[in-house]
Design brief:
This protein has helices at residues 7-15, 35-52, 86-94, 96-108, and strands at residues 22-30, 56-62, 77-83, 109-117. By secondary structure, it is α+β, with helices and mostly antiparallel strands. The protein has one domain (7-66, 73-117): Alpha-Beta Plaits (2-Layer Sandwich), CATH 3.30.70.
Length: 121
């Protein structure tokens, strides 16, 4: 299962851009021993890359009691990040320095959902 966006995914993100800010929903399932690797990735992300691209973490938390989900649909963690626009997200993931760090995220996860959201109204 893919845990990182591919080039075609990023192109589609930009083509389908309604304009304005984008909030990225991250649903994370950690590989065995992956929590510490993800924490190291998150440190780099919040100290370097999010400020560089005008983004901010709105929420980060550990999955807890599942009320409505099929077996296997619970998540270990949820992270919600706001970017000024989709282009800022695309520039960040294309940044060579970010690409060196993203390997920490890749090895940390066994499964992920990364979904762009748009505000209602």
């Amino acid at each position: 299962m893919a845990v990182d966006p591919r080039g075609a995914d990023l192109k589609r993100l930009l083509v389908e851009d309604p304009g304005g800010p984008v909030v990225m929903l991250n649903l994370l399932r950690f590989a065995e021993g992956g929590v510490e690797s993800y924490r190291e990735y998150a440190r780099h992300l919040t100290r370097t890359f999010l400020p560089r691209y005008g983004a901010e973490v709105l929420y980060a938390g550990t999955g807890s009691t599942v009320l409505v989900a099929e077996d296997g649909q619970s998540w270990d963690a949820v992270v919600v990040v706001r970017y000024p626009d989709r282009a800022a997200f695309a520039r960040m993931v294309a940044d060579p320095e970010y690409q060196e760090v993203t390997r920490l995220r890749t090895v940390a996860l066994s499964e992920a959902v990364l979904q762009a959201t748009s505000p209602w109204g």
